[in-house]
Amino acid sequence: MSTHYLRTLGLTxxxxxxxxxxxxxxxxxxxxxxxxxxxxxxxxxxxxVTELLTTLISDYGSEPILVVLAVDDTxxxxxxxxxxxxxxxxxxxxxxxxxxQVQRMQSTGAKVIALSAYGPACSxxxxxxxxHHGISFKQSAWxxxxxxxxxxxxxxxxxxxxxxxxxxxxxxxxALLDNSDIPQPGLIIMVDYKQKDLSEVMKxxxxxGTKVHAWRYxxxxxxxx
Length: 225
Hints:
Layout lengths: L2 H19 L2 H6 L9 E5 L2 H15 L4 E6 L27 H10 L3 E6 L6 H10 L23 E3 L2 E3 L5 H10 L8 E6 L2 H10 L6 E7 L1 H6 L1
Parallel strand pairs: 1-7, 2-3, 2-6, 3-5, 6-7
Antiparallel strand pairs: 4-5
Helix pairs in contact: 3-4, 6-7
């Protein structure tokens, strides 16, 4: 791991910690820490998200936090064809230690799911490719309301993977949370290659009690340069 990355990671964590320092003593005396604020950022390293998640959980606990990881060009590279495209080349991980970072996020106790632009017809291919690389979201999935089928909110959802069929990712995610047995998360941490998708999620929760930390993942851009 480069010295530059460690320095950047340390600076980012320090900024987040400093942002909350003024209320630290009051937090201990009151019911809990103040709610997180919306955040926009960029990173080409999933470990940054993992470390920030760990820090946030130490402040808020794991229950109010949902991590959403895009599949396309964030977990799996689409340059050799997506997991539902015909062809002999199967998608590879964008980052070599992706599976390790996903497992570390899941080990915090937070709910961690994936979200894809592919439709429900591709669920087996996408889930199979993720499992091939050692990634599964089944145990960390956000629960649906008992007896509610994915068709109710017009998107696919299977084993912790939301399949939007090219539709608005923000509306898909909000529909999933609205049809759930458990309370809405206080914070969504989303990582996606496309800024458009991040903006859709922030818009969908703009007038809700859920804040969004939107991270544009630029590893694919870095690999092309």
